[in-house]
Amino acid sequence: MPDIPDFGANFSAKAFAKTLKDANVEYVNVFAKCNIGFAYYPTEIGVVHPHLKFDMFGEIVKECRKVDIGVTAYFNAGLDHEMARKHRDWTVVNKEGQVIYGDRTANFFRNMCFCSGYRDHLLNMIREVAERYPVEGFFLDCMVVNPCYGNECLEGVRERGMDPLNDEHVLAFAKETLLDFSREVKRIVGPDKFLYLNGLDHADTEGLRTHVELECLPSGWSYDFFPAQVAYARNLGQQVFYMTGRFNVNWGDYGGLKSKASLLNDCWDALSNGVPTSIGDHMHPRDGLESAVYDVIGEIYEELERYEPWTDNARLLPTSGF
Ligand SMILES: [Zn+2]
After folding, report:
1. What secondary structure letter does DSSP report for 93?
2. For 17-71, how does the pLDDT look when each residue is reduced to its tens digit (9 = 90+)?
3. Which of 39, 105, 164, 243, by CA, is between 20 and 30 Å from 318?
4. Cα of 95 to ligand 1 centre, how many Å?
5. For residue 13, what pLDDT is reported?
6. Looking at residues 167-189, what average pLDDT do you find?
7. What is the dihedral of CA 12, 16, 22, 24, to 10 degrees?
8. pLDDT over 60 at 322, yes or no
9. How many other C-beta atoms are found inside a 10 Å radius of the C-beta of residue 232?
10. How does strand 38-39 pair with strand 47-48?
11. CATH 3.20.20.80 fits 13-311, yes or no
């Protein structure tokens, strides 16, 4: 949030990288721009967190590379409350003509429209990070197709010979707009770096994504979710990850720390399906990573590393009666 006055005051990128290294972490996806819309590097295009006084993202990239940890840049694409606040015309207009709706205490009460100036704003920020930092790739979050009834979108619907009064046409236009944006991101990122567009259907991102990350915090949104998702995803011919997290309920449930048994269950679940895991965390805004979290992750990853002769490049073999 913008009003954290001592944001990053005790943060050390060196300690951050060491904590990850000691916990056997090989890659980390780090926030370049968050869902509130702030940048964590000295951007010339976006808005830096009001209380950040140094290049947090840049220092993380530098220190992680020193210890052979790859860094990808996280951008929240679908949400940007700072830009929504400054440019109401960059937000999705719902069918009732509202730009703010639903639960105001949650995240998605206001969404960004990719048929607006926001498209170029975000593309320029992604280009800025791609040119400035030696990142391994990009992760774009909250890539949700929201039908937009704003004037620019409805004119776009009509230009394509579709009907602005037909909800399916408006939705189809929103999806094509988001995919067109994604194709431009792919051109900026290039063919050799990781790209994942979280939220879009896998059927729509063929040729754009470099791998598949299945987001699932099972203790929050059911233990039935991952098995069905992975059964489909592992047939797409790409590296698949189980993206779980240290949270018991949902992303950022502060103070929540999953027990080792619970987190290990997710990792075994992934391995039994032939895929590795990533573990999501929420960093303390003033102090950095919480050592209790990485004690647990370190113990788990040490165990998983011992299995690697059998699990690396393993493939799930379906059996009859499965
Ligand atoms: Zn729109």
Report:
1. P
2. 999 999 999 999 999 999 999 999 999 999 999 999 999 999 999 999 999 999 9
3. 243
4. 11
5. 98
6. 98
7. -160
8. no
9. 13
10. parallel
11. yes
Q: Structural domain boundaries of the chain?
A: 13-311
Q: What is the rounded CA–CA span in Å between residue 196 and residue 194?
A: 7
Tokens of residue 145, six digits? 């197709």
- Ligand 1 centroid to residue 153 C-alpha, Å: 4
- Find the 141 Cα to ligand 1 centroid distance in Å: 19
The per-residue pLDDT for range 256-297, each reduced to its tens digit, is 889 999 999 999 999 999 999 999 999 999 999 999 999 999
Q: How confident is the model at residue 321 (pLDDT cuts 50, 70, 90)?
A: low
* Cα of 76 from ligand 1 centre, angstroms: 18
Q: What amino acid is encoded at 322 in this protein?
A: F
157 CA to middle of ligand 1, Å?
10
Ligand 1 center from residue 292 Cα (angstroms): 44
Kindly list the distances between the CA atom of residue 272 and the CA atoms of 231, 236, 310, in Å, as whole numbers in the listed order.
11, 18, 11
Separation of 105 CA from ligand 1 center, angstroms? 23
* The pLDDT value given to residue 249: 84
| Phi, psi for residue 305 in degrees, rounded to 5 | -65, -35
Residue 245: CA count within 13 A, CB half-sphere = 23
Residue type, 211: H
Determine which helix (DSSP H) or strand (DSSP E) holds 119, and give its type and residue range. helix 118-132
135-144 confidence digits (pLDDT tens): 999 999 999 9
Ligand 1 centroid to 84 CA: how many Å? Answer: 12
Ligand 1 centroid to Cα of residue 114, in Å, is 7
